[in-house]
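Bench notes, afternoon.
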Amino acid sequence: MKRLSQDFAAAQARGDSDAGVSIGRDLRYWVQRLATAQTIAGSSDNADVRFGSTVTIVRRDGRRQTWRIVGEDEADPAGGTISYVSPLARALAGKKLGDCVSVGDTDVEIVAIAR
């Protein structure tokens, strides 16, 4: 946010209203996100899938995939992270090692859970 604040001030100093509007919007967004952020206590317990877990699944066709369950702003499926509100993460939430879950039209088995 510090960088956005500096960029916003610089845009105002230049008289660049287009940049000021764009940066101001981003700045307001991140200020609001920070104000509503909630800290979740960490756990080393890998008994079940929850926010922050790294989960490895095996699909019916044998594909093995691993994702870390993160917040919406951090999600990057191609980079190995999925949002906790995604259909897959919601299906996995609360499940344990060895559990099978249905996701869409396929079933997957949980083969590893890590923190």
